[in-house]
Amino acid sequence: MGASTTAFFRLGGSRRYSASSSTSVFTLLLLLSSFLIFLKLIDSAVKDVASRTRTVAGHNLEATPWHPFDLDERRLDLSASRIFHCSYLSCLGQSRAAVNPSSSSPPVACTDFFRAIHRDLEPWRRSRVSLASLAESRKYAAMRVVILGGTGLYLDLYYSCVQSRAMFTVWGLLQLLRRYPGMIPDVDFMLDCMDRPAINRTEYDPTATGGPPPPLFRYCTTKGHFDIPFPDWSFWGWPEVNIKPWHEQFKEIKLGSQSIPWHMKEATAYWKGNPDVQSPIRVELLNCNDTKQWKAQIMRQDWVQESNSGFQNSKLSNQCKHRYKIYAEGFAWSVSLKYILSCGSISLIIDPQYEDFFSRGLIAKENYIPISLTNLCPSIKSAVNWGNKHPSAAEAMGMKGQKLMEELSMDRVYDYMFHLLVEYSKLQDFKPAIPPSAQEVCVESVLCFAGDQRRELLEKSSSRSASTAPCTLPPPESL
Ligand SMILES: *[C@@H]1O[C@H](CO)[C@@H](O)[C@H](O)[C@H]1NC(C)=O
Ligand SMILES: *[C@@H]1O[C@H](CO)[C@@H](O)[C@H](O)[C@H]1NC(C)=O
């Protein structure tokens, strides 16, 4: 009995044992499948969030309606989990400490063209910038930028910009925050990163509308617009056409220009670019392609072909072989202006309609020769003839153009951004806050979205905390 009881119990025990073992297998399976379902849910949640997250690389954004372009150019091949990671996790470990840089040397005075900041912001001097005026600017903006606490950058992205413009422009802002940590005031501004100005002076004439125009930052303006010029993306690099960050690109061009002495340079005017950009000036320029009759050589740049051949024939440093270099606006202003001026040749600038932030430093017959659009080819020819008759005056003028670009170091580019934002912030009649649909962007998140080629340029153009204070802003021109 004892034995059978024992046996029973043993049996029962082992039965119980086998029952609990099948329970635990069952539990394990249950756990495993819930875990898999959980993973699947997370995965679809991540996919769902990623499919709605707008990014500096252009994910989930349409092209600007006022300047449509081919969205495929942006090459957006990131997985959903990567988009999620870059957008929501990469800024978590950021340090927020804002240390004011200690400056050792006394600040220098900013170049004269910084005065334009006062002129550009004049329309808001009395009426100030309100949230209502920003809401109006939003109609023309690709993004809203909010900077808080001197270190935090928040973006509300509305539209995608062509190629990698948005990424490199935002990178420039992040580098500004690194350069002057804690010194950028709280600001809230609208920015468009396409080419043409939008705030027409006639349509937004304050005496007619009774209010200030909408404030909008972009890369250029005209005499007929209220748009506020801001440094363009190419100062940090332009990967699609193999243009390096400005500090490096300038050095290369200057070195290239010095490899041929003035008297050995071609005694003709040279232009190389893309004439098919809806620019009447560039089309007209094709008619001047005659080195005998007009003393000009006009060459077509085929970017697709260049890209396929590794940019061997479009190196900017090899394009300083002529004493005269022609600048012709494209669809709007052209980033090529600074590379042309860097050559130390005389820049022949055809009646520009657009201004960027530094082109206000150009002085006719001092650092360039103006060319008339209405009398294009003869005007080029007479500039070339003048220079060839006065070689030392011509060389000196070329050097002055190059010097203007040398003075436009990255230090000064950041200083321009700094002063523009400081002056603009003084005009805000509200306290900036993070917009509900905005997202934080930081150095790590931008790098996270960049492929290898972009990352290389971004890293090359990164900035450190400045050891000197910003240059001092000159007062407005007295009227
Ligand atoms: C501004 O708008 C007016 C009227 O709509 C137009 O005639 C003018 O050409 C525009 N100005 C510019 C600079 O586009
Ligand atoms: C300009 O003329 C040169 C020499 O004749 C030629 O090689 C070049 O293709 C011409 N440029 C254009 C844009 O047609």
From TrEMBL:
Residues 458-479 are annotated as: Disordered. InterPro entries: CAP10, O-Glucosyltr/Glycosyltrsf_90. Residues 183-431 form the Glycosyl transferase CAP10 domain. PANTHER family: KDEL LYS-ASP-GLU-LEU CONTAINING - RELATED, PROTEIN O-GLUCOSYLTRANSFERASE 1. GO terms for molecular function: glycosyltransferase activity. SMART domains: CAP10. Its EC number is 2.4.1.-. Pfam families: Glyco_transf_90. Signal peptide: none annotated. Keywords: Glycosyltransferase, Membrane, Transferase, Transmembrane, Transmembrane helix. This is Protein glucosyltransferase.
